[in-house]
């Protein structure tokens, strides 16, 4: 797989996979549409997105901020739509808002949930309204 | 392929129970055998639908435990875990075992023990089914519901009150279900003024955390009359999945697993949505009743909310939905729910639903795991 983005080793990337049919998914999967292996990656942190929908959850599990505002957003990567889900930096958000990804070193406390802390990464990108 | 009959059914009291998982399963299992007048040693296959007894209670190996507790040894056993649709998946496995000829008598018991855990802990156990990119953001099943509800209301210009009316309807139905966790009505103002859980959804848009168990007994239809004067036939059944990562679906208001499993079930039953007289849908959240009622073909996309507003899905409506009270009122002990849905449809099509009885020859149950990640749709026809 080639890396289409040009990021330094110390930069954090929001890596999506591109497949032979041109579609892109976040997160990436070992096999895409038609069972085809991905052909490259795209760093979504270089793009802005539009809020498709959002919610503020007040009943959060152990280790998760409360309240927890979440959004499904859609990126436009050279005409290809790519959706992602993530925390929002503010509770002031509306459908259609433009947001950009901002890095967060720890999105929830890995030690307090049911999932084994070593089994996955806990950093990632929140979405911040651009205006 | 052998036609498969359901000849017995049971359901424990749902709610906060003192019993642990083994006790709950044994209660429903023994009651189910008693309902059909079948002894435990006649059971060839024994399936237990259960999502997380290990995570909730530290008790694994529940099918073997149940076989021993019911004196059903040496029956073949297996645990069926498909998260919230474990019950529906159990119905599928039980049907398969008889239809294939592998078993002449299959007992299915679904159960879960949850209420000893805090809401936050139980929510986390359930949320553990999510993809790592979802889990690390604290995404829960209720938050999926809030995201989808906002999108649905915006896309189809549906009023917020329509969701509340699902809760009002299902609580009203639950009043007549002696096994339901909540047997009391709620009014729309109470629903709309309850605390926000996942905006725009509020407390009364969500099912409770529940302990409980339910059972079904399957055999070939060719011998069903030996055990029961009235029975139900599994005339159609289908199972399907949708994406693990929920936001990757093209339309957030369509559950592909419901569409695909329903197509299989309708085809097998040689039926269409108009043939369904009564349905039990997986209303873990009020918004799910809209999505399923549309994806099952009962109503056009974006029109499910209007059916609730117009009373079409009331118990005395054209298509009664969730006569049991649904998960909303009856409760949602994860592994039991899909079994309890079929229990209600079984009662309806054999004419044994008491105060909840509607005019029904054909009924459908749709059991959903995750947020539409795994789905089983089952169609029963009464044989009186």
Layout of secondary structure:
The complex is a heterodimer of chains A (131) and B (384).
Chain A: E1 2-3, E2 15-18, E3 24-25, E4 40-43, E5 49-57, E6 68-77, E7 80-87, E8 98-104, E9 124-129
Parallel strand pairs in A: 1-4
Antiparallel strand pairs in A: 2-3, 2-4, 5-6, 5-8, 6-7, 8-9
Chain B: E1 4-11, H1 21-36, E2 45-49, H2 53-57, H3 62-70, E3 76-80, H4 86-99, E4 106-112, H5 119-127, H6 132-135, H7 141-156, H8 160-174, H9 188-193, E5 196-198, E6 201-202, E7 212-220, E8 231-241, H10 256-269, E9 278-280, H11 286-295, H12 304-309, H13 326-330, H14 334-349, E10 362-369, E11 374-383
Parallel strand pairs in B: 2-3, 2-4, 9-10
Antiparallel strand pairs in B: 1-7, 1-8, 4-7, 5-6, 8-11, 10-11
Helix pairs in contact in B: 1-3, 4-14, 8-11
Describe this structure in words.
The complex is a heterodimer of chains A (131) and B (384). Chain A is mainly beta. Chain A contains no helices and 9 strands. Chain A has strands at 2-3, 15-18, 24-25, 40-43, 49-57, 68-77, 80-87, 98-104, 124-129. In chain A, 37% of the residues are buried. In chain B, helix 4 (86-99) packs across helix 14. The mean pLDDT of chain B is 98. Chain B has 14 helices and 11 strands. Chain B has a domain at 4-117 and 209-226: Peroxisomal Thiolase, Chain A, domain 1. The chains are: A mainly beta (131), B alpha/beta (384).
């Amino acid at each position: 797989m080639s890396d289409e983005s040009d990021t330094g080793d110390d930069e954090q990337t929001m890596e999506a996979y591109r497949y032979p049919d041109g579609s892109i998914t976040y997160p990436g999967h070992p096999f895409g549409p038609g069972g085809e292996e991905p052909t490259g990656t795209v760093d979504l942190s270089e793009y802005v997105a539009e809020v498709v929908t959002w919610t503020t959850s007040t009943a959060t599990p152990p280790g998760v901020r409360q309240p927890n505002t979440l959004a499904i957003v859609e990126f436009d990567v050279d005409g290809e739509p790519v959706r992602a889900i993530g925390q929002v930096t503010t509770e002031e958000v509306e459908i259609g808002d433009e947001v950009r990804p901002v890095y967060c070193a720890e999105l929830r406390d890995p030690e307090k949930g049911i999932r084994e802390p070593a089994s996955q990464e806990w950093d990632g990108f929140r979405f911040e309204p651009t205006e | 392929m052998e036609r498969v009959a359901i000849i017995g059914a049971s359901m424990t009291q749902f709610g906060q129970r003192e019993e642990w998982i083994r006790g709950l399963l044994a209660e429903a299992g023994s009651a189910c055998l008693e309902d059909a007048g079948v002894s435990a040693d006649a059971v060839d296959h024994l399936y237990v639908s259960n999502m997380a007894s290990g995570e909730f209670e530290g008790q694994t190996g529940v099918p073997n435990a149940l076989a021993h507790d019911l004196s059903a040894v040496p029956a073949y056993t297996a645990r069926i875990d498909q998260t919230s649709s474990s019950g529906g998946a159990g119905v599928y496995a039980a049907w398969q075992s008889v239809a294939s000829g592998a078993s002449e008598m299959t007992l299915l018991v679904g159960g879960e023990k949850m209420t000893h855990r805090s809401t936050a802990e139980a929510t986390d156990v359930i949320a553990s089914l999510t993809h790592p990119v979802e889990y690390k953001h604290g995404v829960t099943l209720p938050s999926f519901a809030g995201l989808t509800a906002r999108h649905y209301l915006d896309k189809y210009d549906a009023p917020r009150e329509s969701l509340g009316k699902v809760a009002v309807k299902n609580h009203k139905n639950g009043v007549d279900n002696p096994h339901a966790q909540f047997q009391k009505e709620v009014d729309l103002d109470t629903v709309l003024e309850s605390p926000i859980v996942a905006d725009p959804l509020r407390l009364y848009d969500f099912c409770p955390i529940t302990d409980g168990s339910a059972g079904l007994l399957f055999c070939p239809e060719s011998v069903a009359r030996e055990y029961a004067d009235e029975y139900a036939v599994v005339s159609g059944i289908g199972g399907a999945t949708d994406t693990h990562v929920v936001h990757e679906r093209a339309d957030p208001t369509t559950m592909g697993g419901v569409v695909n499993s329903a197509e299989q079930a309708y085809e097998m039953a040689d039926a269409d949505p108009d043939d369904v007289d009564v349905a039990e849908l997986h209303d873990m959240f009020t918004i799910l009743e809209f999505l399923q009622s549309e994806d099952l073909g009962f109503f056009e996309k974006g029109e499910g909310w209007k059916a609730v507003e117009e009373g079409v899905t009331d118990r005395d409506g054209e298509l009664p939905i969730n006569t049991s009270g649904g998960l909303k009122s009856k409760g949602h002990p994860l592994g039991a729910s899909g079994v309890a849905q079929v229990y209600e449809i079984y009662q309806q099509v054999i004419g044994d639903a008491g105060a909840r009885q509607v005019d029904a020859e054909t009924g459908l149950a749709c059991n959903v795991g995750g947020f539409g990640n795994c789905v089983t749709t089952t169609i029963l026809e009464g044989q009186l």
